[in-house]
Design brief:
By secondary structure, the protein is mainly beta. The protein is about 5% helix and about 45% strand. The protein is built from one helix and eleven strands, in the order βββββββββαββ. The chain has one helix at about 105-110, and strands at about 5, 10, 20-25, 30-40, 45-50, 60, 70-75, 80-85, 90-100, 120, 125-130. Strands 2, 4, 5, 6, 9, 10 and 11 form a seven-stranded mixed β-sheet that branches. The termini are far apart.
Length: about 130
Amino acid sequence: QVQLVESGGGLVQPGGSLRLSCVASGFSMGYYNIGWFRQAPGKEREGVSSMTNGDAMAYYADSVKGRFTMSRENAKNTVYLQMNSLKPEDTAVYYCAAVYSGGLRGYGNRWTNSGLYDYWGQGTQVTVSS
């Protein structure tokens, strides 16, 4: 059974940090590009960060550049999203998603397209508030 499970969300004060994890089961992350998305109440789901499987090229939304860092450990079938200097506008449900990388072209220009991804997790809530 293919599954992605996020964890690490919670309540944090502005300026604080959280590290999200996403663990895959039922498939090998080593063949997939992984994305992090978020969705705030009343807003569309948006791409936050992504990373390719081979060369681990990372992409970030402008709103999180310099604050968020994505990493992956294929041996553990796990990806991480380190979030620093959190702001209230980062409050959202965060999802990880996986897309098979074989034959995938132009990923760097398409990674924010949620329709591209094959598998999704259930999400973890991040709330930034004082």
